[in-house]
# Entry
Amino acid sequence: MGKKERFAFYLTPEKKAILERRYQEDGNRSMTAFVERAVDFYLDYLSANDAGLLQPPPWPMGWISRRCPPSWVMCPV
# Structure
């Protein structure tokens, strides 16, 4: 593995507690490994989305607003 560089980032206490719990549940040896895997996953997700490999939403974004009055939260089927 290549040389690593220190990179500080800030989390809320709640997010830090979740991170500390979840990295152990996932079986990672370190929080750094867990965060690296999470970053890799998200970067791959963004790349796949940019390449058009992910499925589009089931309806166009304006579908509900064209067919339902604005006061409705959900359209009846």
About this structure: The two ends are 54 Å apart (CA to CA). Residues 15-42 form one domain. The helical segments are 13-25, 31-50, 63-67.
